[in-house]
Amino acid sequence: MSVSTETTLQTMPMAKALNAGLRQAMADDPKVLLMGEDIGKLGGVFRITEGLQAQFGDNRVLDTPLAESGIIGTAIGLAMRGYRPVCEIQFDGFIYPGFNQITSQLAKLTNRTEGALQMPVVIRVPYGGHIGAVEHHQESPEAYFAHTAGLRSVSPSTPNDAYWMIQEAIASNDPVMFFEPKSRYWPKGDVDLSQSAAPLHASRVVRLGTDATLVAHGAMVTVLLQAAELAAADGISLEVVDLRSLAPIDYEPLLESVRKTGRLIVAQEAPGNVSVGSEIAATVAERAFFSLEAPVLRVSGFDVPFPPAKLEKLFLPDADRVLEAVDRALAY
Amino acid sequence: MAETESTSPAPAVQILAADGTVAPTASAEPYLEYLDRLTSADHEQFYRDMVIARAFDTEAANLQRQGQLALWPPCHGQEGAQVGSGRAARAQDHIFPSYREHAVGLVRGVDLLGIIEVMRGTTHFGWDAADPSNGNFRPYTLVIGAQTLHATGYAMGINFDGATGTGNPDTDQAVVVYFGDGATSQGDVNESMVFAASYQTPQVFFLQNNHWAISVPVTTQSRTPLFQRAAGFGIPSVQVDGNDVLASYAVTAKHLDSARAGGGPQLIEALTYRIGAHTTSDDPTKYRTQELTDSWIARDPIVRFQAFLRGQGASDAFFDGVTAEAHDYAADIRRRTHAIADPEIGLMFDGVYSDDHPLMTEQKQWLEQYEAALDGGAS
To answer: Looking at the keywords, is Zinc present (chain B) (predicted)?
Structure first.
């Protein structure tokens, strides 16, 4: 971690930014607990919680038994007791044993109690492909949770957002599904330790352009920025919106962009069928119909289980697949 | 067909024989000191609790048949297990019920109209566990076994808070979680015992083995007596005659005190029987014989305790008084059920999130305007 000339600006990878954000949240509030498999001495399989158990102790950083439903269900009980648990799910594809506790209990308890019971629980989920891993280790399950009332779902794309969004998620009085794009854990970026760039649920224009709008979340934002760079060399000006929040979705910056460019391409690693991208396409068509010069196009993973790693480059949308969609949109 | 396992009374802790005479089993010996603490007023209260709970339960089932409720899950037959364990919990303890623990809710101070409201469909809530008058009795959980993990997490929090194990039984907190024989097959129940053992939670797992998970007998859930499973988790356990309110009380009180004294989680299997249907949507004649049910009616917890009280010299006037009280309780429930208002639109949206959420605001506003327009635009 290198310190720049401005003392509040540090360069670090997202993994370190998350670690720093968790450390800050734990220092700020003694009720914040971390729970998960191998997150103590080992620091988690991605080392996101490295050093935190040594600093805060066994009762603040819990190496739990190996049971995802158990982790979420006991986190709910701890939240009933006044704690703010942050659960780590080791990999995206391991979240399903906890699905009932997340969707039928965590998501519904505040509603079930007519608002009397708050559920400030964060569930961190390393997700997505690009890491060449085996089955169940590269999935993008966010649509299941974005679909579930009572949950909030967010995904940072940069170290700066990761540092701030994890703290904002922990401060939320509602359960937050925190999707960490694991392929972005290691590239470095600037983190401004003095102030957050945007509220937790704000979407943001991260590159200005005029010919079409691209929108994505997580690791796919980087792909969109690459595509915009390539298109610029061909004289095509693409605007890029980082969604940041999948539930709720902050539509206004996106709609403003579409009203300007008239074209929208939604990109995601997840399979496209009944996806977050589908919802965005439908909503933008409803709310900006007369601004659109072309149908909203989706660039997604295929509607298949995540393939063996040697095929992931064909499964995951890359800059060329995004640009192919841009060409189609511009042809209208 | 193995309809039910033979509930050999030998290992189960029992204080009262089926005829109400005091005849403690050898296994009851460690628990007898807890009975010495009970006064005749306590005994009368136990009886009153069970009779009122049954009157309430009967009234609620009738209200369902009259179209007032969507569903009713009766607790008939399980009053001994529920009143005994519920009365054994101390004021500072926290109770995590499933959805059939009406008698426990009663003894913890909950207005049982809340259960009626839930089953009528006017709310998912019914009562607020944070309200001190509700005795730390949590709202019902309908997904089988899910509450066992919440109870264990809550008990972990009690440990982290240092709110137990100080040596003061009047303030040290513990948790009781209720679940049934069917629930023991759920992953969550097993995971909750793993976590409870690992974190040595101050917690009693109170398993009401009522022998039926809707239509499936307990023998399909387990080939071993359920309380023996606890050993595999490193959790001490005991089997008790759940239709013996004194045994249920003494066993729960002792194990709760062990849990609050740092003894870690404990499991109690209360042998009882679901005399009624699973719910009012069920038809027990399709899967069990009347003879079997009759054999359990002969072990009715209220009849047994009434015989005990008569042996202690309780008067007809006492029994008549309780009967009248229970009648009044049921009548009051019936009257108030008819007065329950339908919920407002806001109930659907206002409690989904604690913090502001744009979709809730938008959709609530839309529905209100839409409804107002249907009313002739007289908004």
So the answer is: no
The number of folded domains in chain B is 2
Rounded distance between C-alpha atoms, residue A45 and residue A89, angstroms: 10
ipTM of predicted complex: 0.96
Do the domain assignments include residue B145? yes
Of A47, A42, A94, the C-alpha closest to A70 is: A94
d(CA A102, CA B345): 26
The span from the CA of A20 to the CA of B134, in Å, is 42
pLDDT of residue B375: 78
Amino acid at B5: E
A302: amino acid identity, one letter:
F
Is B213 in contact with B284 (CB distance < 8 Å)?
no
CB burial readout A62-88, b (16+ within 10 A) else e? bbbeebbbbbbbbbbbbbbbebbbbbb
Range B157-165 average pLDDT? 98
Secondary structure element (H or E) that encloses residue A55, with its range: helix A52-56
Q: List, in order, residues 6 or more apart from A148 with CB less than 8 Å away.
A: A102, A103, A107
Cβ neighbours, 10 Å, residue B288:
17
Q: How far apart are CA B173 and CA B169, in angstroms?
A: 8
User: How many Å apart are CA B274 and CA B211, to the nearest integer?
Assistant: 7
pLDDT at B11 over 90: no
Structure-token pair, residue B376: 């002739």
Average pLDDT of span B144-171? 98
Contact residues, B window 168-207, toward A, CB-based 8 Å cutoff:
187-188, 191-192, 194-195, 198
CA dist list (Å): B73 to B38, B101, B115, B297: 31, 10, 10, 18
Select the more confidently predicted residue: B5 or B192. B192
Q: Which domains does chain A have, with CATH numbers?
A: 11-192 (3.40.50.970), 204-330 (3.40.50.920)
B287 given a catalytic annotation:
yes
- For an interface test with B, give the residue of A63, A71, A81 to mutate (most B CBs within 10 A): A81
In a domain, B17, yes or no: no
Mean pLDDT across chain B, nearest whole number? Answer: 95
Omega into B139 within 30° of 0, i.e. cis? no
DSSP of B300-360, one letter per residue?
-HHHHHHHHHHHTT--HHHHHHHHHHHHHHHHHHHHHHHTPPPPPTHHHHHTS-SS--HHH
Give me the pLDDT at residue A227, please. Answer: 98
Based on the domain organization, do B226 and B365 belong to the same domain? no
pLDDT in tens, B83-108: 999 999 999 999 999 999 999 999 99
The contacts of residue B303 (CB under 8 Å, 6+ apart) are B20
Residues B332 and B349 in one domain: no
- Kindly report, residue by residue over A110-158, the tens digit of the pLDDT: 999 999 999 999 999 999 999 999 999 999 999 999 999 999 999 999 9
- H or E element: which one contains A179? strand A176-181
Please say if the pLDDT value at position B250 is more than 60: yes
Residue B263: how many CA atoms within 13 Å on its side-chain side? 19
Taking CA–CA distances from A149, the nearest residue in chain B reads B352
Contact A161, A197 (CB under 8 A): yes
Domain span holding position B349: 345-378
- Chain A hits for B351, CB-CB cut-off 8 Å, are 110-111, 113-116
Q: B94 with B171, same domain? A: yes
Is B10 within a domain? no
Whether residues B150 and A114 touch (CB distance < 8 A) is answered with no
